């Protein structure tokens, strides 16, 4: 969904563009009889043009049509603000080589107390025929919002659009339709450069260049103007949830865009806790067979925090689930003021895949910076030797060569500048893919993290891996894979693969099936942990552990703590595995098999594999596992196989 402030500005921009285009495009071939009666091709100028378009008022102190057969009165009649004749019919009577407007202002009111004015300079429309404009340009524009919560001001650089269909623009914006008609293309291309906007909250947005292609859409029941007004107002006033949802679905479904290329986006904020700067070097979107969104060179800076992402790519994004959820809300007869958590899940767009490349985050250390030592007022000032120039040129008239400063250790005027120390977290690549959603929940998902590096101290206190710093690891280099699928009909969650591997550490691989899992687990009606405890069951589990150096470090650390030699401690662990583990697990055949496999692994740390499967088709309930009297009671309900090396 689009933020209300963004919707407001987008609506205003469309209104201004529509009005600008209509003013620029009152030109199409006149009927033959009118051509015969008109004067020869000439330049015609009219003044004080005012055009109301919905909530937008356009004003042009001066408009000149060059290369037209229209008279001044005919041109004024076409642009008459209170004309009862439809715009499309008026556009069809206008023909001009070019239309020139030195200053064009667009004043928009709403929503609420918002008032926005956009003033364009040197507007020129060329090759205006049959309601179409070959090229429309403006030298620049200023934006001012002086009232309302979204106060601010900004500027545009050059604006250029090609292949405008003014009649189509007017129909989309002002003429209602059923939302099922053919797509009407409004722009062939549109380019805007050097956009800057600052609001009263201290946020500044800049865009170096914005290029769009093949923008169009379908007519909707309230017209685009009315639909934008409803969506911008939200649930305020006469709008209810049904009205809002219907208009939002209409706009999303009706709008088409071939491609978008944005370069040099930056968002800065003068936050009291420290200035924030967010930048994207380039963002592109393409529809059709190459559908997808790509963001390049993303950076975030706040104080000592620095983050950089080389590339983020979204593939196979579909708004179909969002539109369907909005349509359902629009058809719901119940009167509500918003959307439930379950409905918000269904509003989520479908995402085929997401890829991150070369992520790095520099985090500040929890240490104080060196303090600057103030000059000692008792220190004797240093005086340059007589006869030697202190500044400017030397005695022979040449500029002195720069020399490195030599700072004496006891110099009271010396100031040491030390950059803030940081620790880096980096990720070479991350891939995330999803299956088709069911009730807003993906039916499958796979996450792959490659080359995740971070200081070991950052995992201190975490389960299992939190002990790594104690075993001599200072930096971790990890890979992770998580692959799962959800069968809503069978109510099974299959963990096809969960793998964590680390350089000089080893690998843990887990797979299995959990029963009693449905989409309701993710709808937020109850905490997931509570739902899982009462509905979940364990059906099967496969666990593989591969050692790549961790066990040796663990043994060395324990030997030091216990004042034993590593080979002595290894023998004790082997004995504990062969004798102690079976006793703890109930001395069943499965318990003895697990103990024997663990003993072999301790003696020669390589690979340990454990297979466990419930004897009951429905699995063993998690609530039964929690309430079991002993491990033996659980092992009796499973088939277990354990092997090592």
Describe the overall structure:
By secondary structure, this protein is α+β, with helices and mostly antiparallel strands. The protein contains 15 helices and 26 strands. Helix 7 packs antiparallel against helix 8. The two termini are 53 Å apart. The N terminus is likely disordered.
- How much β-strand is present in the residues? 35-45%
Overall strand count: 26
Oligomer: single chain
Label the overall shape.
Answer: elongated
Largest sheet: 6 strands, antiparallel, barrel
Structural class based on helices, strands and sheet pairing: alpha+beta
Helix content: 10-25%
List unreliable stretches of 5+ residues: 1-39, 367-400
**Number of helical regions:** 15
Distance between the termini: 53 Å
Radius of gyration: 35 Å
Mean pLDDT: 83
Tell me the strand order in the biggest sheet.
4-5-8-9-7-6
In brief, what are we looking at here?
With 645 residues, this protein is α+β, with helices and mostly antiparallel strands.
Key traits:
645 residues; alpha+beta; two-stranded antiparallel sheet; 26 strands; elongated; disordered N terminus
């Amino acid at each position: 969904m689009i933020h209300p402030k963004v919707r407001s500005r987008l609506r205003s921009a469309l209104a201004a563009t529509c009005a600008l285009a209509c003013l620029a495009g009152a030109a199409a071939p006149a009927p033959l009889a009118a051509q015969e009666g008109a004067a020869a091709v000439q330049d015609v100028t009219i003044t004080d043009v005012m055009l109301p378009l919905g909530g937008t008022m356009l004003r042009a102190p001066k408009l000149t049509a060059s290369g037209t057969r229209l008279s001044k009165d005919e041109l004024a009649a076409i642009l008459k603000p209170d004309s009862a004749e439809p715009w499309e019919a008026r556009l069809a009577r206008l023909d001009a080589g070019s239309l020139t407007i030195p200053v064009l202002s667009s004043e928009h009111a709403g929503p609420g107390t918002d008032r926005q004015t956009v003033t364009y300079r040197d507007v020129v429309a060329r090759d205006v025929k049959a309601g179409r404009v070959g090229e429309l340009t403006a030298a620049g524009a200023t934006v001012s919002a002086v009232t309302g919560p979204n106060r601010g001001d900004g500027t545009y650089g050059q604006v250029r659009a090609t292949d405008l269909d003014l009649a189509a623009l007017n129909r989309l914006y002002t003429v209602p339709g059923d939302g099922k008609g053919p797509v009407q293309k409004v722009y062939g291309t549109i380019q805007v450069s050097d956009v800057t906007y600052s609001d009263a909250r201290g946020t500044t947005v800049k865009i170096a260049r914005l290029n769009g292609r093949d923008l169009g859409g379908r007519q909707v029941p309230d017209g685009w103007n009315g639909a934008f007004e409803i969506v911008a107002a939200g649930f305020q006033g006469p709008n209810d949830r049904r009205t809002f949802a219907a208009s939002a679905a209409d706009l999303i479904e009706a709008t088409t865009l071939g491609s978008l290329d944005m370069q040099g986006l930056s968002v800065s904020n003068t936050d009291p806790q420290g200035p924030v700067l967010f930048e994207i070097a380039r963002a592109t979107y393409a529809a059709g067979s190459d559908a997808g969104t790509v963001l390049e060179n993303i950076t975030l800076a706040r104080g000592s925090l620095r983050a950089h992402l080389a590339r983020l790519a979204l593939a196979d994004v579909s708004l179909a689930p969002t539109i369907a959820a909005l349509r359902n809300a629009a058809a719901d007869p119940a009167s509500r003021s918003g959307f439930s958590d379950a409905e918000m899940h269904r509003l989520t767009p479908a995402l085929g895949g997401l890829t991150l490349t070369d992520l790095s985050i520099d985090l500040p250390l929890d240490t104080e910076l060196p303090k600057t030592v103030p000059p000692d007022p008792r220190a004797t000032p240093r005086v340059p030797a007589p006869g030697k120039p202190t500044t400017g040129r030397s005695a022979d008239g040449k500029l002195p060569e720069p020399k490195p400063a030599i700072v004496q250790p006891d110099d009271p005027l010396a100031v040491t500048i030390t950059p803030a120390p940081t620790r880096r977290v980096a990720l070479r690549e991350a891939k995330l893919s999803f299956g088709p959603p069911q009730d807003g929940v993906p039916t499958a998902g796979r996450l792959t993290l490659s080359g995740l590096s971070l200081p070991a101290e950052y995992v201190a206190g975490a389960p299992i891996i939190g002990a790594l710093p104690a075993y001599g690891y200072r930096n971790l280099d990890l890979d992770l894979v998580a692959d799962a699928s959800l069968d809503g009909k069978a109510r099974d969650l299959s963990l096809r693969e969960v793998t964590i591997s680390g350089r000089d550490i080893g690998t843990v691989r887990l797979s299995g099936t959990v029963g009693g899992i449905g989409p309701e687990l993710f709808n937020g009606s109850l905490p997931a942990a509570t739902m899982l405890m009462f509905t979940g069951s364990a059906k099967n589990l496969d666990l593989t552990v591969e050692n790549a150096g961790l066990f040796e470090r663990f043994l060395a650390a324990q030997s030091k703590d216990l004042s034993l030699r590593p080979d002595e401690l290894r023998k004790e662990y082997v004995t504990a595995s062969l004798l102690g583990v079976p006793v703890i697990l109930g001395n069943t055949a499965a318990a003895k098999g697990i103990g024997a496999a663990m003993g072999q692994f301790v003696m020669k740390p390589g690979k340990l594999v454990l297979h466990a499967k419930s004897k009951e088709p429905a699995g063993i309930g998690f609530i039964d596992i929690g309430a079991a009297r002993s491990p033996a009671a659980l092992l009796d309900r499973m088939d277990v196989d354990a092997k090592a090396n």
